[in-house]
Amino acid sequence: MQENKIALVTGASRGIGAAIAKTLARDGFDIWLNYRSNDEQANKVKAEIESLGAVCLLLKFDVANYAETEKALSPLLEKQTPFAVINNAGFRRDTLLVWMKQEEWKDVISVTLDGYFNVTKTVLPFMLRNRQGRIINIASAAAHHGAPGQGNYSAAKAGLVGATRSLAFEVAKRNVLVNAVSPGYIETEMLEGLPMEQIVKNIPLGKAGKPEDIAEITAFLASEKAGYITGQVFQVNGGIF
Ligand code: NDP
To answer: Mean pLDDT of residues grouped by 10 in the chain (241 residues)?
Structure first.
């Protein structure tokens, strides 16, 4: 029996990451599901994935920590290589730069950019050896247009877009394809505290998106159908940008 391909999804205990993991499971992937703290939620997502007939391995580690990332992934990589890595873990600490603490700057940059580096660097040699793979980075509309109070977040996500384009050049010859998806406002816990009533007035489609809107394009980019797409950034934002 042919084994399922594996997708490693970071930050998948809830929100967009959980939707991506479930959609990839629907499409026939087994899932390595990373999260940082929420065991209960992670187990719930695992059960949903298993009900779709896929295998789901929970991997609790902080993507911003290189040693933890390597310790969690290396023993697995000796036996199996994920076909797709979805760098989705991220978080916000919004405040105007004039008030921003160094820690708020560093933490947001670190989860997004160190997280991308740590996970990708650990898996990439195995993908290159297999001469196949997909890396999909979840950026943000904030990377492209900026946003007041999000200097740290916009910088991190713009950095991720640059990293996506550079890596795409480096690994194309080995058939490893690297793309980014840039969500606009998507209904998850990340939107808590934002004035959404006001914000939706400026979204041409008149509403926030659903995690599934991001999951579907990510699943497409991880599929055989997307074999000639690399180095691209896909905006999914209801028309705001
Ligand atoms: P949520 O806050 O709903 O979920 C974040 C997930 O990331 C959780 O599973 C959390 O795990 C995990 N996580 C956070 N930090 C780490 C870490 N250091 N290591 C491992 N896992 C971590 O976020 P969303 O689903 O809304 O966002 C997902 C991605 O999409 C992020 O990169 C975000 O920046 C991006 N995005 C979201 C938008 C939105 O409107 N929602 C808009 C644009 C981009 P746990 O809970 O277990 O700690």
So the answer is: 89 98 98 98 98 98 98 98 98 96 98 98 98 98 94 98 98 98 96 92 97 98 98 97 78
Task: Show Cβ contacts of residue 67 under 8 Å, excluding neighbours closer than 6 positions.
Answer: none
Question: What separation in Å is there between the alpha carbon of 86 and the centre of ligand 1?
Answer: 12
Instruction: Catalytic residue, from 35, 153, 185, 228: name it.
Output: 153
- Report which protein residue has its CA nearest ligand 1's atom 12: 11
Determine the distance from the C-alpha atom of residue 221 to the mean position of all C-alpha atoms in its chain, rounded to a whole number: 12
Distance CA 131, CA 143 (A): 30
Q: Model pTM?
A: 0.98
Residue range 6-236, CATH number: 3.40.50.720
